[in-house]
Amino acid sequence: MNDAPDIDLSPAAAARVAMIAAKQGKPAMLRLSVDGGGCAGFQYVFGLADVVAEGDVTTERDGVTLVVDSVSLDLVRGAMVDYAESLGGAAFKVENPQAASGCGCGSSFSI
């Protein structure tokens, strides 16, 4: 049996989710989903989650839960959700080994 999680959350991303959730008085749960669209075919969508729905897959780091629906998981399996700050801004990003190509903004990808 493979002990590696289907998807993972970096310590930096977990810390950022915890801070945002605390400010908004919400549970420390980040939902990642994949929608059709974006400049490369699929785009990542992030938002705070209130509940874990049936069929969702979760992983936890430092008290923060990452929630992914089963359809989106097929497109991001093996990925790492990270949070990075740079001169261009700060954002959550997905390091997705399944993405064949991405776009300059880093928020969309193709398979």
Give a description of the structure.
There is one protein chain. This protein is 19% helix and 45% strand. It is built from two helices and nine strands, in the order βαββββαββββ. A six-stranded mixed β-sheet has the order 4-5-2-3-9-8. The protein has a three-stranded mixed β-sheet with strand order 1-6-7. The chain is globular and about 35 Å long.
Give a brief rundown of this model:
The chain is an alpha+beta fold and 111 residues long.
The number of E-state strands comes to 9
Strand order, largest beta sheet: 4-5-2-3-9-8
- Indicate the mean pLDDT: 86
What is the string of SSEs from the N terminus onward? EHEEEEHEEEE
* CATH fold assignment: Hypothetical Protein Aq_1857, Chain: A
Biggest sheet, in brief? 6 strands, mixed
Helices, by number, come to 2
Strand content: over 45%
- CATH class call: Mainly Beta
- By CATH, the superfamily comes out as HesB-like domain
Q: Helical percent range?
A: 10-25%
Rg: 14 Å
- N- to C-terminal distance: 26 Å
Shape: globular
Structural class: alpha+beta
How would you summarize the topology of this molecule?
Blueprint: E1 7-9, H1 11-24, E2 29-37, E3 41-48, E4 57-61, E5 64-68, H2 70-76, E6 79-86, E7 89-95, E8 101-102, E9 108-110
Parallel strand pairs: 1-6, 2-5
Antiparallel strand pairs: 2-3, 3-9, 4-5, 6-7, 8-9
Note the main attributes of this structure.
111 residues, alpha+beta, Hypothetical Protein Aq_1857, Chain: A, six-stranded mixed sheet, three-stranded mixed sheet
